[in-house]
Predict the structure.
Amino acid sequence: MTAPIRDPSLRRQGQDKIDWAARFMPVTRGIAGQLRESGAVRGLRIGLVLVLEPKTATLALELAAAGADVSVMCGASNTHDDTAAALQHAGIAVFARSDASAADDRAFALGLLDRRPDILVDDGSSVTRLAHTDRPAVFETLRGATEETTSGLRPLRVMEREGALRIPVLAVNDARCKTLFDNRHGTGQSTLLTMLDLLATPLDRAHVVVAGFGPVGRGVAQHARALGARVTIAEVDPVRALEAVFAGYDVDALESAAGSADLLISATGIAHTVDVEHLLALPEGAAVAVSGGVAQEIAIDAALAAGATRQSIGHALESFTLPNGRSIVVLDDGGCINCTAGEGNPIEIMDLSFGVQVAAVDLLAREAGSLAPAVHLLPPEVDDRVARAKLDALGLRIDAPSSAQRDFLGSWASTGRRAAPQRDGARS
């Protein structure tokens, strides 16, 4: 049984937003069009577990137009009710409400699994893992899954090492056309713009501390610096810390850096990155948020257990009074701020990510039976396919390797010598 739509009257509003998003998603539409022609997903049941907003709706509708039986599930904090209403009206099975409880969200996830999907498109691997623990019968039909996020791939790789993973999972997150653009440019932009909109404060001369210098952290740092902030990076990986140094950022331990932070942004996807001691180190009035992320990336439960109190001070803003007497601002309960309180990443960037997703679904539909139960990187051809589609949509041309270049790249032998320098006296 699907979720009762919270407000069916929002259908028209949601459809208008979906139509707008679809106009700027030529890659997703183009690759999905190839699936329509090939019939690769015709008759397959595909479950989408993604942020439920207009860009995701475009992906769902394109897969449905290619002949798949599509269902979507999303947690309450990432659900746009108008999008849910429009999708249900279009015949998509929807398991999502913005006012759902944690128990409701779990029931919705189980409901999606009970539809026995052939392919699962997951975000955070929550439903993939739930299938292993609570719905093992689903593996009678489930061919494989794709995973959208870094934080979702981490536990799946642990499952693989422990021999617990029962299906092939394609690491969409690790595709170049996803990570290089969505994680870095898209999430960096949407995180900073959402935070500034909520806080109504400029960043020029502010001290922004970013925990984590992976692709998301790099993007957040880059956009904060472009907006005039002084940026400090906190890292546990010495190589990434050194990368930050060579990129021109200050680097410090998180507790030390937090002592002078105006904004503290966690970008690791690891629980308790910002722990109680880091919150206690923040100065009066500092704000803290999560970019991307997982539950309790900011250790809110631990802070409350230590004696902190909370009070709503506006949309997606809470003041936390800490045991040391200082007050800080926590954005949207420590959720994925760019998705829970913002509009998500830019349409044109999500078009790349969802283009990779469609290509990954195509691959699973055709080749899942030959893939071992493990986390698999997508072949380079998928990135090339998506990137070329985007370049074509932009009307841009690139070069092709010449035959001489191909010969050079395909040979291990020395193919030439540098000309020997001539002595001055020989130039006559």
In short: The CA atoms of residues 9 and 85 lie 8 Å apart. The chain has two domains: 8-178+345-390, 182-340. The mean pLDDT is 95.
